[in-house]
Amino acid sequence: MISRRGFIRNAALGTLVAPLAAKAQQAGKIYRIGAVSGGSSFAEGTQLLMALRQGLRDVGYVEGQNLVLERRNAEGRYDRFPEFIDELVRLRVDVIRVGGPAGARAAQQATTTTPFVVIDLESDPVESGFVASLSRPGGNLTGLFLDMPELTGKWLELLKEAAPEISRVAVLWDSTTGTTQVRATEEGARALALRAQTFAVGGPAYFNSVLDAVRKTRPGGLVVLSSPLLLHERKRLADFASKSRLPAISMFREFADAGGLMAYGPNFIDMNRRVGTVIDRILKGAKPADVPIERPTKFELVINVKTAKALGLTIPQSLLVRADQLIE
Q1: Which listed site, 84, 191, 246, 286, has its alpha carbon 20 to 30 Å from 105?
Q2: Range 77-97 average pLDDT
């Protein structure tokens, strides 16, 4: 995991080496990169955008020198993705970076010519029809896909280890992301002799009724599946878990930062820096059809010890020592 201090240090080093890398680019060429985000405070915040910029800088693209970054923020309105993508296509940007299943679908429907680099943590890219295969995507879309539904079993294991008395869990699921995570969660629950009840959230308007339904079932724990929407609503979900005295886990470390008990998932800073390398390959002539889909390789476990104390939980030492970060 990259600390904030380490991230700033790396950014400073990148400033020194970037002019050397930039010499490898076409002399006088200004590249235009589109970046469409869903609009959670993390996605629209400085850290994620800095990571993308730093990833581009690492391979020689510097704003104000040879790069223009056209950024669009949906502010939680994922139905605006097609609008933004169409706008960027009309601007004839060289590559567009989008996130999540909604971004991948909008990219696929917008054009067959403009290259797209996607970060999607919810979809099987082949099963969803985004690409023909992982090694040869075959179209104008490539990128980084998590494609690890078995990760949901790991969340259940961690939740059970932190709160061994749990026998029933509520599972929040964004129904627009497909059923892959749900199926994997149900399998993982059976393996641990847990009863899992899934609650579908179809959009922002559904949260109040869904959370009321969860409360009435009186579960012992809460699992928040991966979704841009659920990430965007992490503070609401963390507050709900706290008020309901529910040990809760999500993929996103921002959920633990917001007061959720635990998070386990890929390092987003690393993933977004990696996007710069994928974009660089395309700008140097590679076709997205021939650029293999990548999976994240860095994962982090974050435990909110303060939340654990508020819930009356004593986190086992064996779990604490495995954490990449403890929030005190």
Answers
A1: 286
A2: 93
**Which residues touch 108 (CB under 8 Å, ≥6 apart)?**
129, 130, 139, 141
- How many structural domains does the chain have? 2
- Give the separation between CA 94 and CA 33, rounded to whole angstroms: 6
Look at the block and give the residue holding tokens 């629209």: 44
Buried b (16+ CB within 10 A) or exposed e, 155-189: bbbbbbebbeebeebbbbbbbbbbebbbebbbebb
The Cβ-side half-sphere exposure at 44, using a 13 Å CA radius, reads 11
Dihedral over alpha carbons 309, 220, 183, 117 (to 10 degrees): -30
- List the CATH number of the domain containing 131: 3.40.50.2300
Expressed as residue numbers, the domain containing 97 is 4-147+267-299
Output the average pLDDT for the chain.
88
Instruction: Report how far residue 300's alpha carbon sits from residue 317's, in angstroms, rounded to the nearest whole number.
Output: 17
Which pLDDT tens digit goes with each residue over 18-57? Answer: 444 444 456 678 999 999 887 654 444 456 778 899 999 9
Polymer length of the chain: 328
